[in-house]
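Let us practice reading a record.
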Amino acid sequence: MAQLLNVGMTGGIACGKSTVAQALQAKGVYLIDADKIAREIVQPQQAAWHAIIETFGEQYCLPSGELNRHKLGQYVFANPNALAQLEAITHPMIRQTIEQRMIQAQHNLPATPPYLLVDIPLLIEKNYQTLFDRILLIDCSADIQWQRLLQRPTMTEAKAQQILTAQTTRDKRFAFATDVLENNGTRSDLYQQIQTFHDTLCNLGLNKI
């Protein structure tokens, strides 16, 4: 059985990770999305949902039974101890699910494209580095990141600053990255870099088989 390359993708908020993930998916690359998993594990009656309601109370639950993610997010971002409690509940479950899906993919996916992609915004912060053969960093300048972030619906300067403060530095991401896509220009510029990266990984993966 061919062994796929495990590629972890990270980058700061509003740097373009979703655009890159969608483009690589369109080329047939299998994607594991940590943010999607984070939403799955807190669905009503899941283990994380029960733990969150028990820890923070039913006031963070909508009439439908789903978590009020917006209200809970506002609370934990303003309270570091609460954020630590929430992450202690969710992050081990997210990591376990990611690892399970990586193993399943290695057993079930075809050999081409010869790599899988795992999108983890907090890859460096939560020490996922050892899971991957390569780490792809999506980066842009601090000024462009700030401008893009403030264009998001309901985003305020205060909330944007909270989010950026909670994330690791660009320098630390660069220290771990094996591949970097710079998203400071046009969409066409980014797509050209994506194609080059994909071609490189295909060649590496095929040589590994």
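A brief commentary: Residues 5-204 form a domain with the Rossmann fold fold (CATH 3.40.50.300).
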